[in-house]
Fold each of these.
Amino acid sequence: MSANKDWINDVKFDDKGLVTAVAVDQGDGALLMLAHMNREALEKTLETGRMTYWSRSRKSLWVKGETSGNTQRVVSAHLDCDGDALMFKVVQEGAGAACHEGYRSCFFRKLEAGEWAVQGTPLVNPKS
Amino acid sequence: MSANKDWINDVKFDDKGLVTAVAVDQGDGALLMLAHMNREALEKTLETGRMTYWSRSRKSLWVKGETSGNTQRVVSAHLDCDGDALMFKVVQEGAGAACHEGYRSCFFRKLEAGEWAVQGTPLVNPKS
């Protein structure tokens, strides 16, 4: 988005070199997912315009949707007051499923009567 | 919200005993803030219906808005697929400012031409 990278100095990475990144839908603002980025993932996200996270489990860069096709195109990047969390407005591409379980949003479970009740149905079969 | 606390076993607290918690506006789904909760903060949030976080800087429970009046009333709680992030739909009370800098949302800076540009104006003067 810019060759000037001074902006990255305002981002506070934690003791593991990570910052929390939230993706919201550009259309209606719905919270799609929450993950993490290291400095390289953040730079790559803005250079390529595709959401790129750091997978804490796989310990590697993770271009969202690279295998599933459910990529996320970056529309804009926003930093919070403390500088330790980023919000990205994105266009959720592919089948529109941000969640690896096939749901539009990863936050598809709602607490109801002491249990996490699944809301809605998957847009895609995650096993397909 | 419930005497049954089995639900909390599905929440994965990290190696510091924390889980990421995001508050979104019940009305339009706008992302208001991102903070953290330990187990006690999460339990207190659901018992009292007021968003209660763990302040990592002050190392203490933090009832959001306790001093400013900008409390957050819990409408519903949602867990993500990995169990390590929570989303809460809330009614932002008081002056409607979730951010301690007086803005509605903590994510009031947007990356524009390599700089974090402030979007909008504060709803309240944080120094008042």
Amino acid sequence: MSNDERELTLTRLIDAPRENVWRCFTDPELLKRWFVPRPWTISEARVDVRPGGTSYTVMRDPDGNEYPNSGVYLEVVPKERLVVTDAYSEAWKPSDKPFFTAIMTFADEGGKTRYTAIARHWTKEDTEAHVKMGFHEGWGKAADQLEEVARSL
Amino acid sequence: MSNDERELTLTRLIDAPRENVWRCFTDPELLKRWFVPRPWTISEARVDVRPGGTSYTVMRDPDGNEYPNSGVYLEVVPKERLVVTDAYSEAWKPSDKPFFTAIMTFADEGGKTRYTAIARHWTKEDTEAHVKMGFHEGWGKAADQLEEVARSL
């Protein structure tokens, strides 16, 4: 099966230095401020940003219901590239459902930062489900919030 | 779901120095000599032993049918620990079927080498299928061959 059919992409030119954008991904207090589209919030965030390190976030909906998410970083190139997957809940324990792997890249572009997020899935069905769950709107709105936080630093 | 239910383990005391055992895993020419139980053979082996590097082997049955296998190394601690998964065919392309992650550890023990292989699966069904495919016999026989090659170095 082609990987293209299982891939979703978001790209944005963020009006902030790459250093700031990187901090927004790796500092849990900053991450909390943009990572889910408001009015959802992140009630807890722990990120051990190194290959094999755990990413743990708890998303909270407006009614107060909480949704924990665990993942593991596969690749970390400071200020350039971050790869994380939910296929493991910690290094190296398979999660109950390997859903996707996110590859985030950051590059300088005319004084701004080109941010690209690629979400790769194990199945075409999961890719389609991710679209229906609102991948484009959700990650797009989060990217707006990311820019807002990164500019403020 | 508990990880224990999805885990298979093989442990062996190998009568060879840890250095030699490590070489048997990381030198493709040595790997070919033991990695599948005879009379199967490995007709091709390419291993890029670093986190994110690809492991590619082709198993050949006695009739000459070939079975290619791709995986990616997740963690590499020279002479101590090697983690590889078939959940990716290369960094970081999801494979068609994430079946298992192998964690191999090597430790000195009374002048010999304690070799432990843990195979962790995403589902209980895959774990059971791996047992039926002959995990214990196959990996056990391969470990005998590993010892033979490691002792000869």
Amino acid sequence: MPKKVDHQQRRAEIADTTWRLIAERGIDATTMRAITDALGMANGALKHYFPDKNALVKTAFVRVFDNTNTRIQQRLAGLTGLAALRVFCQEVMPAEDVTELEARVVLPFWQRALADAQLEEVWAEAMAQWRQQLRRILAEGREEGTIRTPVADDALVEQLLAMLNGAQVLAVLGPDETTRETQQAMIESYLDNLGR
Amino acid sequence: MPKKVDHQQRRAEIADTTWRLIAERGIDATTMRAITDALGMANGALKHYFPDKNALVKTAFVRVFDNTNTRIQQRLAGLTGLAALRVFCQEVMPAEDVTELEARVVLPFWQRALADAQLEEVWAEAMAQWRQQLRRILAEGREEGTIRTPVADDALVEQLLAMLNGAQVLAVLGPDETTRETQQAMIESYLDNLGR
């Protein structure tokens, strides 16, 4: 038992270190060596966790996705419909330090998923989970009357996912134009419209 | 004079071949060798055009961006406001063969722009151009009465850019969920809302 716990804890430490290194230094500078140095591990030991660079990128993305979802869950307590949707958007949009760092992991993940079926599958599952969650929140909002737009929920889900993913690019590659305030105005005005 | 024309024509051929190779085979498979093979050029001759891989990615992105804008301009003749906005979205959204191929160049470009100031600058200029164009189209739409939403134009510009960039990711990495029909429904319902 203790051995299993150690192993899981080690995995978590590695995942934390990996996503942070990618976010702060970029994917190219995040070598196996950089990770083992940061963790104080023997160089060869990491091969067991990451047979190649895509395994490393996968671990980093999964960690970022899990962290985002944990924050969403924590803040969702007692919230439904439009208020829940606002929390969801705020925790994904790169308008804070942590979400901006997370976006810097997502961009290289996408590029690698283009040429790696396993990463593409991880992405598909992540988006399937968000689609389901967004549909549930929208249905709640319809029932309680906070969401009243005539636009169909399926189209709203797609608009939200596209906007939130696109904001990752705009904010990270153009922070002077897509400021945090601009992102807030973008999403708040969109959410306001849902209540009309 | 003929020499200059030849040179420009050569540049155009190289740009066309490069973006297509990246779109069809991926960024990693688009080596200098793959490009010279496709063009029937001597291997060393390409170094003059592309000192490194980022130069190649820049050329491919600029070509894709120019091609997109050329199609938009061609289709905009006589159109204003909401109708013009629809054309703009249709030519950017990856809901056709050509725009889907273009998205496959944009994703690796973003990833490299994260760590390359020159590519980031190219992206900033591209987005500045689109912001300006979108603002002009929205102002026209307000004047002619086809755009009547109470949401401010600056927020609309940001929503549109985020949604169109995000659609690149969703469509390329999840074509079974984000089908072409789904993209059309996403954008049409958004545009309908602007007229309300």
